[in-house]
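Sample entry as discussed:
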Amino acid sequence: MNPRWIRAAGHLCLIVSVIGVLLTVPAVAQEDSQEKDMSSMPGMDMPGMQMPGMQKQGKHKHKPRPGKKQHPKEQARKPAKLGTDMPGMQMPGMQMQGHHTPAPPPKQQARKPAMPAMGGMPAHSSQSTALQHLHFGNMIGARPKPDGLASGRQSMASMPAMSMPSMQGGDAPPDARSGDYSDGYRYGAMRGMAMADNVSIGSVLLDQLEYAHTSHGNGVFLDGEAWYGKDFNKLWLKAEGESSRGRLGELRTEALWDHAITTYWSTQLGVRHDSGVGPDRSWAAVGVQGLAPYWFDTEATLYVGQGGRTAARLQLEYDELLTQRWVLQPKVELDLYGRDDPQRGTGSGLSDAEFGLRLRYEIRREIAPYVGIVYRQRFGHAADFARAHGETRDDLQLVLGLHAWF
């Protein structure tokens, strides 16, 4: 044979040997690293918990060649399969994925005690269903059987200890303080806890208590009201009159039942009585009172008197806040009658009108002195009756007064 071919064959064998060695080293290193990782896991150093291929670091040994007999000492040191030498780890359904634990001999099966049933749970259910969710397959991603959890719930529901009839209501026990657990307490009104719309309160308002100066003499004028009741129903009292030259002029008093119909409006129903100059007159009154758009305080009332007499009255007020204490108040009053009454000095139609402008300073919200001017005008037959009594048809007054409420 040609020596050149012999050398080439030798070189080829050398190259193949080197390649084989290089391929073997990574596999051995990978196996050693796996053994190190498994041995370093917590709880993996339990006595008897030897898995195939898990040996201590630095003591890796290759498998014996086929056909070669092992030494008896090596056979004794050979690790057993999982589950065969672990005390207490022989539980049905607990096995490593990919490893099968051989069944024990018939004699051992006969001597092995059966797990007691829990709360009436069948033995095969507690072993094959409940414990299947605890095997090591769940730790590495295996899913339990679809019907395993449902059957477990049914088994738990059938346990006698889970029945709690005392938590389902019913009558009180014999030693309870009272049959309805109220201990004698009953629902009712509590002092200081009543709602605002159920409390009766009252107020008194002196809208105008003033001294008036005119070219014909001085006088005192009063316009006030008071009410008492709840938010929806009140008793409302009103009084308006004047006194001049030491004698009472005109005095109008009203007693009305006020009933709220909307947020800002209420109806009023009651009686009116006129006294002072001339004979007294009594009227039945019905009207409305409230806050008109743009914050105008409005009173509109119709009256029906004896002998077919009728009358109407309209009053408008507005409070213009110049500052937090200075308030400018314009006021308009109109009186109308159905027919003439010479004895009282009133005429049919628009009998008289009053226009006032008052500026007050609120020392407190409840008390405020003021100054202002008032112009009063009589119309139609009312003007004629005034001239007949020596009075003028119009009058301009300078007023100084007090506005208070409590």
About this structure: The chain has a mean pLDDT of 74. The chain is about 20% helix and 35% strand.
